[in-house]
Amino acid sequence: xxxxxxASAQPPLPRGRxxxxxxxxxxxxPLDVLFVxxxxxGLAGAIRLAQLAARDRAxxxxxxxxxxGVLEKSGELGEHCLSGAVVNPEAFHTLFPDLxxxxxxxxxxxAGDRVLLLTERxxxxxxxxxxxxxxxxxxxSICEVVRWLGGQAEELGVNVFTGFPADALLxxxxxxxxVRTTPAGLDxxxxxxxxxxxxxxxxxxxxxxxxxxxxxxxQAWLEREGVGSANPQIFALGVKELxxxxxxxxxxxxxxxWPLPRDAFGxxxxxPMGENLVSLGLVVGxxxxxxxxxxxxxxxxxxxxxxxxxxxxxxxxxxxxxxxxPEGGYHAIPDRLSGDxxxxxxxxxxxxxxASLKGIHYAMRSGVxxxxxxxxxxxxxxxxxxxxxxxxxxxxxxxxxxxxxYDAALRESLxxxxxxxxxxxxxxxxxxxxxxxxxxxxMQVTGGTFPGGRIPSEPxxxxxxxxxxxxxxxxxxxxxxxxVDAVFRSGNATRDxxxxxxxxxxxxxxxxSPVMAELYASLCPAGVYERDGDRLVVNAPNCIDCKAxxxxxxxxxxxEGGSGPAYKRM
Length: 570
Ligand SMILES: Cc1cc2nc3c(=O)[nH]c(=O)nc-3n(C[C@H](O)[C@H](O)[C@H](O)COP(=O)(O)OP(=O)(O)OC[C@H]3O[C@@H](n4cnc5c(N)ncnc54)[C@H](O)[C@@H]3O)c2cc1C
Known about the structure:
Blueprint: H1 15-18, E1 19-20, E2 29-30, E3 33-36, H2 40-59, E4 68-72, E5 86-87, H3 90-95, E6 113-118, E7 123-126, E8 138-139, H4 142-155, E9 159-162, E10 166-172, E11 175-181, E12 184-186, E13 192-197, E14 201-203, E15 206-209, H5 216-225, E16 235-244, E17 252-257, E18 266-272, E19 277-285, H6 295-302, H7 306-312, E20 316-326, E21 338-339, E22 342-344, H8 360-379, H9 400-403, H10 405-415, H11 418-421, H12 425-428, H13 433-445, H14 483-489, E23 502-503, H15 514-523, E24 529-532, E25 535-538, H16 548-552, E26 555-556
Parallel strand pairs: 1-10, 2-14, 3-4, 3-15, 4-9, 6-17, 15-22
Antiparallel strand pairs: 5-8, 6-7, 10-11, 11-14, 12-13, 16-19, 16-20, 17-18, 18-19, 21-22, 23-26, 24-25
Helix pairs in contact: 2-4, 2-8, 8-10
C-alpha cells in the first residue's frame, strides 16, 4: 500500500490558544507557586514546598507565608491518573522519612517477577532482565496514591482545586505569571449555556507544569522558547483493565511477543493487586508501521491467550482506561525545563524509564527537586520575595536564572540512574524485535556503555504506515470488551453537548482522507473517532484524555473541568 505519513494531516499546536500574552485579571486568585496537575509530580512538589514553608514558619524563615496551589482538571483527585503500577518507593521515603511502609498508600511488596515470551498458544519463560526486577518495589493503584498524596498536601495547607483545568499560560514580556482556567457550561457552539462558569485566572510567581504525558501547555512553552531535545519525544499507548478474579497470579508478570508483530515495540503487564484484583494492560509504541494499529483490540486478542484466559476465567472486568507514556527516555528530555516563572516536572518532561516501565518515582522526584529549587529561589532575598511588583500590583515571576538549579539537580540525579543507563534501550528496538533484543541485552550487560552515543529517532507522526494488522477477530474471545463498553467502564460521564476540544485536520475546515480517518478510528481506544464511509466522525465526549491521537493527528486541548474518565483504582 501507499505509505501514509500521519504528520501530513496533523494540525500545528494551537499555541495562540495555549499561551496568552495577558496579565492575570485583577480578581485573579493570588498564589506564590502553582502546580498545574494533581498527579504524583504536582502533589509531591506541593508537599515538599509546604514542608519547607512549615519549617520556615517554625523558624521564622522567608517561606513562612507561602501560598501554594494545585490545579487539577479531574473532578476528584486521581480520576485522570492511570498507571500499572509497580512503584519504586524512593520518593515516598524522601518525602515522608518518618512513615513506615505499612502507612504508605501501597498495596504490598512485589512477591516475584516473571518475564514470558508468548507465541499464539504457548509461552517460554525468559530470565528476568535487571531492568524488570522489582525486588523492594510495591504494587499500587495510582488513583489511591494520588488521593492519599492530596490528603497529605491539604493537611500541610496546600490549596487543591479540583475540576479546574489550566486552559492557557498567562505570559507578560516572556515571563509566565499564572494561568487561566477553561470556562464551564458552554454549549456545543461554545456559547454560555446553563451552569455557565467563566474562566478564572490564578497568578503565581512560579508555575510548575506537572500536567503529565503529552502536556499541551508544556509543548507550547517549549516551542515558544525554542527549547529542543537531542531526540524528539516518542510515545506508547497503554490500555489497561482491572479485573476481579478468583485467584490473582502470585508474581508481577511482563510478556513480550504475541499478539504484537515483530516490528511493533511493546508488551504486556499483569500485576496482582492483592485480594481478588488483577491489573493487566498492553503497551505499544506509536511508531508501529500499521494504518490500523489498535492497542485496545490487541489487548482483547491478548486476553484470548490460554495463559491470560486462565487468570480471567470466572472473573469480571471492573475498570478500564488508557493513557500514553513518553518513552523517548533520557535523550528526549528537553534541554531546559526551567524559565522565567516556570518549571516542568514528571511525564510532561518525559521522565519515564521505559525499560522498567517506571515513571511514578521520577515524577515525584522531579516534583521534589522543583520544590527545592523554588524554595532556594524564594528564600534568596535578592531573587524571589522582593520581586518588583507588576503594573497592576501582581508580583513578578521569579527569573529563570534563579530556577535553573532545578535542571542541574535533575540531571545530576539521573546520571547514575536506570533512566540514564537505559537511554538507548527503547531506541534499539527501532531496528526490529530480535536485533533490538540483542542490542538491548548488550546495553543491560554493559550498564548502557554499549553502543555509546545516541541512537537517533524521529517523531512518531513522521514514520510511514504501510501495513495492516487485520484485527477483526480480536473481539471473538469470551472476555472481550467493545470500545463503547470500555468507555463506560472508565467512568466517563462527560455531557453530550460539551464543545469539541479536539482540533482535526492539517488545514482548518478540510476533511482528512478516508485512510487517515481509519488510522484515527483504530488508534483511539475510546471510539472518539469513527470512520463513516469516507467521512471521519468525531465523538468528543467519549474522550478519556489518553492523548494517543494527539501524538499522530488531531490535537487535544483542555476542556471543561470534570469531563473525561473517573478512574477509581487504576
Ligand atoms: C499503562 C501504564 C502503565 C504504567 N506503569 C507504571 C508502573 O508500573 N510504574 C511506574 O512507576 N510508572 C508507570 N507508568 C508511568 C506513570 O504512570 C507516570 O510516569 C506517572 O503517572 C507520571 O506522573 P505525573 O504526575 O507526571 O503525570 P500524571 O500521573 O499523568 O498526572 C498529571 C495530572 O495532571 C492533570 N492535568 C493534565 N493537564 C491538566 C491541565 N491542563 N490542568 C489541570 N490539570 C491537568 C491530569 O488530570 C493528571 O491528574 C505507567 C503508565 C501507563 C500509562
